[in-house]
Design goal:
The protein is an alpha+beta fold. The protein contains four helices and eleven strands; from the N terminus they run E-E-E-E-E-H-E-E-E-E-E-H-H-E-H. The strands form three sheets. The chain has a six-stranded antiparallel β-sheet with strand order 3-4-5-11-10-7. A three-stranded antiparallel β-sheet has the order 6-8-9, with no helix packed on it. Strands 1-2 form a two-stranded antiparallel ribbon. It is globular, with a radius of gyration of 15 Å.
């Protein structure tokens, strides 16, 4: 049996499940039914954020969103980061468990730690294409991380 797809972040393997699509914003999308997808943070983004402990949405369920529109914030031990949709589409509903306790993102980001359900209006990346995005940006990401550590 072959090893699952992954991207090496130094000594850490960021796994990339092959049963879903991806966005350049380090989000995964797994189809629930007929064009409706669950969206979550990839292992790559969870590793960079580290422990997530606060999540707030600035849009309501049923909202049509533009590509690059801020839809909320996530706070972690590393930073407060704006959240953006994977692409233009409709935010259908939020994960009710995470609204109460966002630590599920840390414990099971590819399972019960999903963020919201979404109807994308654009085509997204296949797993191998997402790995290419990670490889292309890794050198710059390492410089950013090292710069933060030296502050």
């Amino acid at each position: 049996m072959s090893e699952p797809l992954h991207f090496m972040m130094g000594n850490f393997k960021a796994f990339i499940p092959e049963d879903r699509l991806y966005s350049r914003r380090h989000l995964w999308l797994q189809e629930v039914s007929g064009g409706l997808y669950r969206v979550g943070l990839t292992a790559y983004s969870v590793r960079l954020l580290q422990d997530v402990y606060f999540l707030e949405w600035s849009v309501d369920p049923g909202t049509q969103v533009r590509d690059r529109q801020e839809i909320g914030e996530v706070e972690s031990s590393k930073a407060i980061s704006s959240m953006y949709p994977p692409c233009a589409g409709e935010v259908v509903r939020f994960n009710p468990q995470l609204l109460q306790d966002p630590s599920g993102i840390n414990a099971d980001n590819y399972g019960s730690g999903w963020l919201y359900e979404f109807r994308p209006a654009e085509t997204l990346l296949q797993p191998a294409e997402y790995i290419e995005v990670l490889e292309a940006g890794w050198e710059n990401t390492q410089r950013t991380i090292k710069g933060q550590m030296n502050e």
